[in-house]
């Protein structure tokens, strides 16, 4: 079992998804993940796809959005397996961490060699089923009749006697 950085408040009403050492840029993925944090799963999927308004180009880095979509799909299937209501899932926690860099080399002029590093990342997310908020019934407050100062003083005087 893999350890997550956060435990959900109610484990029975939440599902998790995690990916380690993913070959996708850390910086791009972190920004994309923060943009969808707190959204409903359907809205986050639409946002990551960036197919709004019939545009051909998306708003997010393509590869980062693709990996996050796969993670959302995985979390959704985990929720179905647990028997949760998929339409009421909200991204409660999403975290992107740096993974160990992968090394390659590039050959330069005059026989030099420079590093050619990639910046992979780990992604984890926790989705929680949002409870429907039931409005509190309004109690009828008995409105007091406004009494003039003169009548109030008279009542106090009568109460003393």
UniProtKB/TrEMBL annotation:
Signal peptide boundaries: none
Alphabetized SUPFAM superfamilies for the sequence: Ribosomal protein L22 (SSF54843)
PROSITE patterns, alphabetized: RIBOSOMAL_L22
Protein name, UniProt field: Large ribosomal subunit protein uL22
Keyword Ribonucleoprotein attached: yes
CDD domains in UniProt: Ribosomal_L22 (cd00336)
Natural source organism: Ovis aries
Keyword flag Ribonucleoprotein: yes
Region (Disordered): 137-161
Similarity section: Belongs to the universal ribosomal protein uL22 family.
Gene Ontology molecular functions: structural constituent of ribosome
Compositional bias ranges of the Basic residues kind: 144-161
Keyword field: Ribonucleoprotein, Ribosomal protein
Cited PANTHER family: 60S RIBOSOMAL PROTEIN L17, LARGE RIBOSOMAL SUBUNIT PROTEIN UL22
Tree of life domain: Eukaryota
GO cellular component, one term: cytosolic large ribosomal subunit
GO BP terms: cytoplasmic translation
